[in-house]
Amino acid sequence: MDRQRPLVLDPTAADRRGEDAALRERGPLTRVDVLGEKVWAVSDRTLLKQLLMDGRISKDAVQHWPRYPDETRDWPLNLWVGVRNMFTAYGADHRRLRRLISPAFAGRRIAALAPRIEAIAGDLLDELAAEPPGTVVDLRERFAAPLPIRVISHLLGLPDERANGFRSMVDGVFDSTLTGAEAEANTLAFRKTLTELIDEKRSSPGDDLTTRLIDARDTEGDGTGLSDGELVDSLMLMVSAGYETTINLIDHALVALLTHPEQRSALLAGSVSYEDVVEETLRWQAPVPFLPMRFATVDIDLPDGVTIRTGEAILAAYSAANTHPDAYGPDADRFDPARDDRSHLTFGHGVHVCLGAALARLEGAIALRTALDRFPRLALAVPAAELRPVPSFLSNGHRSVPAVLAPAAPA
Ligand code: HEM
User: Fold this and answer.
1) Among the four 53, 222, 250, 377, which has the fewest Cβ within 10 Å?
2) Can you tell me which atom of ligand 1 is nearest the CA of 152?
3) pLDDT single digits (tens) 287-326
4) Portion of the chain with pLDDT greater than 70, in percent
5) Which of 51, 95, 245 gets mutated to test ligand 1 (max ligand atoms within 8 A of its CB)?
6) Phi/psi at 29 (nearest 5 deg)?
């Protein structure tokens, strides 16, 4: 097989499993075409982990991707590589920007959020319970989405309606079917809204992450703070990373249980836990299937004779790596919360590993437990085959999850 002929990734991700299999078949590392950019995609778990740990690989396009920005002006994913926050920062800049936010995600702080998350879930389930019996509700729109949005609003000190206003912009960040111009317009609107929010918060500060970041901006000069652009883009990261990803996790975990009655019974019998279900869902349906982009800062020779040249781009293929038969055996594609090896790379690995992983896991477990406790007969309202994926290779969720809370018992 000619590994130099790139596999063109489908921006609508109509057949994610098929595409993951095609990637793996081409070897641990292969050329792909990402909306016109030719890059290396890594789908082998061991190699991917190794590259994610490799200090010679950067996420900073400004410093390390010669094609950026002149050659990528119309590329719809420019924001993913051009954003100025920890997500793309390299070396000391990355440490500086991550250190400003990481205290908010310390283990005990996240654990302390549990009662609030329970209360948010309870309110949302109350709203669902108020629907007339037999009503079909969209679990994604009415439960999976508002839960993480309200949690992030709480962390950032935003009123809920403000947080909802970000929803379409976050959708735009994850939509791989936008044109370059549409993506650019979305980025501009997102930054403008965040700038307005920062101005408001400056005049009425609170005990929240937004205020702490503004304080860090205003003390810039001692080398520990952040610039205006970094402030806006750090808030953009918190909002974006905290919404779509966790929405997809809750969506897929609910659908997995509603379509695998034997696993639901195992959960209710206590032979697997809610945490097991969350972990296996993260492996089996990575909420962020591909993570753009990384760049080789020097030539990197790999064991099988391939060299990633300086300045070439690398795409982490998390979904394909998480379901690789070499790592998980022939049933890698099966949802099995009791499997021996549920480790995965869904949150990345190395210095850029997801800062919100513990929060996402907590939200996922609380969402599942509270929903199934309240509605023990919860069921899909359509055959599973009719659920449609979000049209994006960056976001793995369903467009909607129609469900009935308490289906009529069979006569
Ligand atoms: C299921 C939910 C989530 C998934 C699947 C997820 C996944 C990821 C992935 C794949 C990365 C990038 C790793 C890489 O560089 O390859 C990342 C980074 C990040 N995530 Fe998450 N994430 C989730 C939830 C969250 C939440 C709830 C937050 C915060 C509210 C968050 C905050 C971040 C931050 C700040 C980074 C950047 C870390 C860095 O570059 O140093 N994430 N996440």
Assistant:
1) 222
2) 30
3) 999 999 999 999 999 988 999 999 999 999 999 999 999 9
4) 97
5) 245
6) -140, 130
In the chain, the domains with their CATH numbers are 7-403 (1.10.630.10)
- Work out the mean pLDDT of the chain and round it to a whole number: 95
Kindly give the distance from the C-alpha atom of residue 261 to the centroid of ligand 1, in angstroms, as a whole number: 30
pLDDT digits (tens, 9 = 90+) for 195-225: 999 999 999 999 999 999 998 887 756 667 8
